[in-house]
Design a protein that fits this description.
- This protein has 605 residues and is an alpha/beta fold.
- It has three domains: 16-39 and 172-276, 3-Layer(bba) Sandwich (Glucose Oxidase, domain 1), CATH 3.50.30; 51-166, Enzyme I, Chain A, domain 2, CATH 1.10.274.10; 283-598, Phosphoenolpyruvate-binding domains (TIM Barrel, Alpha-Beta Barrel), CATH 3.20.20.
- Helix content is 47%, strand content 13%.
- An eight-stranded mixed sheet has the order 1-8-7-3-4-5-6-2. An eight-stranded parallel sheet has the order 15-14-13-12-11-10-9-16.
- Bound molecules: phosphoenolpyruvate and magnesium ion.
- Magnesium ion (MG) is lined by residues 462, 483, 485-486.
């Protein structure tokens, strides 16, 4: 077989520096040691089952096989973008994995062990993989290295199956050593919510898109991150050194002396820039011609609160409440929600907090709703299914609990606004308002004192339908928050978290900008407060364009606020309006990007 020499060469190569490019998620530079979450976790504890559980374990195994096939299939599809030698090495390996995930001896044996030995699926897979590996290793064959390789392939597939069998959304990252760089095939938003930014120096994954919720979480936590790094996890080994640049979108494995020097310099430059920007905290966010621009923070998890305070945010423009529902098997009750919202509202000391009710669906993984205490199914196309307000109106009891907690916080702790996700028709706002009023009446009957005027109820404008019907939605809503992450996804039919189409995801596409402009102008005409809270808002290069389109409130991840403020303070609104006019005349996304990049404040652009 020719695979052996190839492997030997590649073993030598594995000691060498290797550079990977992915999607820059930001937050600076990290230098550390690989911690590979795709590596086998400690063996799953052995589990026996009773006869009535056999069918469920067989089904779990079938599900894990399907997931594993999908994962390996994805890796296989991506090979074409790797250098030829890497393809030659990896293709036979991945093909062997796929064969083992078809009707192989490993799967047949594992199923049999579930049935006859009454073993849990992960224990059955482990035992069968070990039994096959032992048979391979004792075979009469001179090619001992080949035998060892084949045995390790069986074990590897056994481990992949075990990971998919035992992994639940409550993956723990507690064992990650301090200062480690986390590598993973994929990190879900629920996983990201468990990361401790004080321990983890950086994150790099194979999957993911620039504005997916995982990316948003990582930005929010201020963890230097690069997503969509093809081939990285295959090439990395635990303990490898890494230089990760979240701004440039590069990951250098086993950096040589030069790459280390460059990495250290970038790290120091980032720290200096942060100190410099920190000095802007107390200065007003005002253009050179005196226009005030409100810079608010998006908040994903309460751990971000200190960062928000440091950044000098003028309130919270988007509190995503999904975190409260993640990584648990039950649903948070009214009091638990109250405590959580109250903590945030109190910390903002009188600045308004816009709390968005649960936006379940799409890539957001909420166990209790997916298959837990209140199961809901989104159908074959979750992004187009029962997402956001659609789900809440179908299950009003969820909305009622959330409204009750928010109304109490608004009455007792500080100013709040309530935001509805994924609105597409005005009636959804009207129905939600009725529910809010019903909840208010119920609270008053319970003795809770609420002001006569309930908090403003706003609509996310994040689908093309909502943007184009913004004037109609404005008749029902008290304010708009334009969500360009979903707006770009739905307008361009490009999944925001899907690495394969990440190159097509472009909020500067004229179609997206026209919708932003249309919705903003409708709001301004009707004197409805409007903000933009998609990831675009935190990109300082886009600030002149967004102000030129008429926006005066931007809500972004807290760490972006100082940089955006610095840009605002150098801008003239007339220049911004001229830039926006020129941009809106263009039809080519590339030309728009050039105009935006080439904009120089104060120059005749
Ligand atoms: C958006 O879609 O732009 C948005 C802000 O909401 P989320 O990212 O939570 O979907
Ligand atoms: Mg959205």
């Amino acid at each position: 077989m020719k695979t052996e020499p190839t492997r030997r060469t590649s073993a030598a190569k594995r000691a060498q520096e290797a550079v990977f490019r992915g999607i820059p998620i930001g937050a600076g530079v990290a230098i550390g040691t690989v911690f590979d979450t795709t590596e086998a976790p400690a063996e799953a504890p052995r589990r026996n089952i009773s006869p009535p559980e056999v069918e469920a374990e067989r089904q779990s195994l079938a599900r894990a096989v399907a997931i594993s096939r999908k994962q390996v299939g994805k890796l296989r599809n991506r090979l074409s973008i790797l250098p030829e030698e890497a393809q030659e090495e990896l293709a036979p390996l991945l093909d062997a994995y796929l064969m083992m995930l078809a009707d192989s001896r490993l799967l047949r044996g594992a199923r049999k062990r579930i049935e006859t030995e009454l073993l849990a699926a992960e224990t059955a897979v482990h035992d069968e993989a070990e039994a096959i590996a032992a048979i391979i290793l004792t075979a009469k064959d001179d090619d001992k290295a080949g035998l060892r390789r084949r045995a390790s392939e069986v074990r590897e597939i056994g481990r992949r199956l075990t990971r998919n069998l035992t992994q639940n959304p409550f993956r723990s990252f507690k064992d990650v050593p301090e200062g480690a760089i986390l590598l993973a095939d994929e990190l879900t938003p629920a996983d990201a919510a468990l990361l401790d930014p004080s321990r983890i120096a950086g994150v790099a994954t194979e999957e993911g898109g620039a504005d997916g919720h995982t990316a948003i979480m990582l930005r929010a936590l201020g963890i230097p991150s690069v997503l969509g790094c093809h081939g990285l996890t295959e090439a990395a080994q635990p303990g490898d050194h890494v230089v990760l640049d979240g701004t440039a979108g590069t990951v250098v494995l086993r950096p040589g002396p030069e790459a280390l020097v460059v990495g250290k310099a970038a790290l120091a430059a980032f720290a200096r820039e942060r100190v410099k920007l920190g000095k802007l905290r107390r200065l007003p966010s005002e253009t050179t011609d005196g226009e005030l621009v409100e810079l608010q923070a998006n908040l994903e998890i309460p751990a971000e609160l200190p960062l928000i305070a440091q950044a000098g945010a003028q309130g919270i423009g988007l509190l995503r409440t999904e975190f409260l529902f993640m990584n648990r098997e039950d649903l948070p009750d009214e009091d638990a929600q109250y405590v959580s919202y109250a903590q945030v509202v109190a910390a903002m000391a009188g600045d308004s907090v816009t709390i968005r009710v649960l936006d379940w669906g799409g890539e957001k993984d909420i166990q209790a709703l997916a298959d837990g205490v209140a199961p809901l199914h989104t159908g074959p196309n979750p992004a187009l299914g029962l997402r956001g307000i659609r789900m809440l109106l179908k299950r009003p009891e969820l909305l009622e609990v959330q409204f009750a907690a928010i109304l109490r916080v608004g009455a007792e702790v500080g100013p709040v606004r309530i935001l509805l996700p994924m609105v597409t028709v005005p009636d959804e706002v009207a129905q939600a308002r009725e529910i809010m009023e019903r909840v208010a009446r119920r609270l008053r009957r319970r003795g809770v004192t609420l002001p006569e005027k309930l908090p403003p109820l706003g609509a996310m404008i994040e689908t093309p339908g909502a943007a184009l019907a913004a004037d109609a939605i404005a008749l029902e809503a008290d304010f708009f928050a334009i969500g360009t992450n979903d707006l770009a996804m739905y307008t361009l039919a490009v999944d925001r978290a899907e690495v394969e189409v990440a190159h097509l995801y472009d909020p500067l596409h004229p179609a997206v900008l026209r919708l932003v402009q249309f919705a903003t102008e409708a709001a301004l005409r009707l004197r409805l407060p409007v903000s933009l809270c998609g990831e675009m808002a935190g990109n300082a290069r886009l600030t002149p364009l967004l102000l030129g389109l008429g926006l005066r409130t931007l809500s972004m991840n807290a760490s972006a606020i100082p940089r955006v403020k610095q840009v605002v303070r150098g801008l003239d609104i007339g220049d911004c309006a001229r830039l926006a006019r020129r941009v809106m005349e263009q039809v080519e996304p590339r030309r728009i990007a050039e105009l935006v990049e080439g904009f120089v404040p104060g120059a005749r652009n």
